[in-house]
Design a protein that fits this description.
With about 200 residues, the protein is an all-alpha fold. It has twelve helices and no strands. Helix 2 runs parallel beside helix 4. It is elongated, with a radius of gyration of 19 Å.
């Protein structure tokens, strides 16, 4: 069972678990969401606190990417080089054409978030629209994961056979595998010539 794999979580204080979830979100978002859901399911931290922790972790990470892009504008050489690239011009056009929708959808396409959110800051896209789009997308994504964890925990068939922990573990592994598959599908492989032009 998962309980035997992570026995030390029960010894953590609620505040420690809260910050553990936030810190984990900076490394692996999906794993942090799963960790937060597991901690809430095991009643180690109340559901609202676990949801708040994962939301703070993901939202602050997204905002850090935005600010990193905004800060990069201060370097004239980098700014000139980036703004003359074809890909950046296309991305800028796409982001500005349907800004909210594109920023929302990027949350669900693995591998695009870092580039797109940094580029949003670099292109000085409205911070209000950026924060609103990623906030709504993050709430939807974490809500979906938490709902799945709740359904696994309260499934009578799994509880009868004492398979709840294993079902949760399988769901986490499945989430990671789907994430990796989608990332490979979403990011085209560049030829050497295209790579040199980026």
């Amino acid at each position: 069972m998962i309980e035997s794999l992570i026995p030390s979580l029960a010894t953590w204080s609620p505040l420690g678990l809260f910050f553990l979830i936030i810190a984990t979100s900076y490394l692996l978002e999906d794993a942090a969401i799963a960790l937060a859901a597991y901690i809430a399911v095991q009643s180690l931290l109340p559901w609202p606190s676990a949801l708040l922790a994962i939301f703070i972790g993901i939202a602050s990470g997204d905002m850090a990417l935005y600010l990193l892009g905004l800060y990069a504008r201060r370097y004239r050489g980098l700014r000139a080089r980036l703004l003359t690239q074809k890909g950046v011009r296309r991305a800028r056009h796409a982001l500005r054409r349907q800004l909210f929708l594109n920023l929302f959808l990027i949350r669900f396409i693995p591998g695009l978030r870092t580039v797109a959110y940094s580029l949003s800051g670099f292109l000085s896209i409205s911070v209000v629209i950026f924060a609103l789009a990623v906030g709504v997308a993050t709430a939807c994504w974490t809500g979906l994961i938490f709902w799945g964890a709740f359904e696994i925990e309260h499934n009578p068939w799994l509880a009868e056979r004492q398979l709840t922990g294993w079902a949760f573990l399988v769901a986490v592994v499945g989430l990671v595998l789907v994430n990796r598959f989608l990332r490979r599908r979403a990011l085209p492989k560049l030829t050497k010539r295209q790579y040199d032009q980026v």
